[in-house]
Design a protein that fits this description.
Number of helices: 14
Helix content: 55-70%
Structural class: mainly alpha
CATH superfamily of the largest domain: Hypothetical protein af1432
Strand content: under 5%
Shape: globular
CATH class of the largest domain: Mainly Alpha
Radius of gyration: 19 Å
CATH topology of the largest domain: Hypothetical protein af1432
CATH architecture of the largest domain: Orthogonal Bundle
């Protein structure tokens, strides 16, 4: 009899991470199929009234810029499309994962930073000719490992960030020393465990890598986007290198045809107006 292959055990630092909501997993799986109807997707969502309410709240937030109020899930699906519904479902699911500890200042900074990165990544993808929804979702999830470890160990992780900031320690190495895994690897593990696309997991795993001039890819776009969020003053933690907006913009193709190519003050004002509603 052939020996069965055992699934690798989760790294210990991730064993207390709240599970990805089952309703979101089913929705993402169905939305990824061809010719799925709004009614089919709506039938899954309505099985969880609280998830439905959260999904509608996000659909009506400034983050999705719909022209009129959305009052039902089928209406939201028709108006924004299945790809956007997948993005919203992911946003709701991750929000559920972190909301019990979002009152902690360090975790809230990570969440705000992730939303800024997602919005920047979506716009950068638009002008670069890449998939906007994939860029938004990956930008939102690029610090998934941080969110996961913070949710599981909020006090310990927050103290580690404080010590790293105070003494200028290398964040990834400090994570490995204390948790035996860094947030890039942890995020990629969670993304794969929750059946997110391989390109998302790969971008999460490499988002701290060096920028590549002239490379038009999701990986490189995410590396630029989170650094742009930092340059606007929304860093989740102290970076190993402080970039300026002007230094980073050249890494984004066609940025001059977008609000990204305006002044950092103008870009920050736009992002602030979008996030104000999303974070209510």
């Amino acid at each position: 009899m052939p020996e069965l292959l055992a699934r690798p055990q989760a790294p210990w630092a991730l064993r207390l991470v709240p599970p990805f909501p089952h309703i979101a997993q089913r929705l993402l799986a169905l939305a990824g199929k061809e010719n799925v109807s709004a009614r089919e997707l709506g039938n899954i969502v309505k099985m969880d009234p609280s998830f439905t309410a959260e999904l509608l709240r996000f659909a009506n937030s400034a983050l999705f810029s719909l022209s009129r109020e959305v009052t039902s899930i089928p209406q939201a699906i028709i108006m924004v499309g299945t790809d956007r519904i997948k993005t919203m479902a992911t946003l709701v699911a991750v929000n559920r994962m972190v909301r019990s500890s979002v009152r902690i200042a360090a975790l809230r900074k990570v969440w705000v930073h992730s939303l800024f990165t997602a919005i920047i990544a979506e716009e950068a993808a638009r002008v670069a000719g890449l998939d906007r929804d994939a860029a938004y979702t990956t930008g939102l999830l690029h610090n998934l490992g941080t969110l996961g470890m913070m949710s599981a160990y909020p006090d310990e992780y927050s103290r580690m960030l404080e010590v790293s900031d105070d003494f200028g320690f290398d964040l990834l190495q400090t994570e490995r020393d204390l948790f035996e895994i860094d947030h890039c690897t942890a995020g990629a593990y969670l993304a794969q465990d929750w059946n997110f696309p391989d390109e998302t997991a790969a971008a999460i795993a490499t988002h701290h890598d060096d920028l590549v001039p002239g490379e038009v890819s999701l990986d490189n776009l995410i590396r630029v986007s989170w650094r742009l969020a930092d340059a606007l003053g929304y860093a989740a933690f102290s970076p190993d290198k402080r970039w300026t907006w002007e230094e980073l913009i050249p890494y984004l193709p066609n940025a001059g045809s977008s609000w990204l190519g305006e002044s950092p003050e103008a870009a920050k004002a736009k992002l602030d107006s979008l996030l104000a509603n999303a974070l209510k």
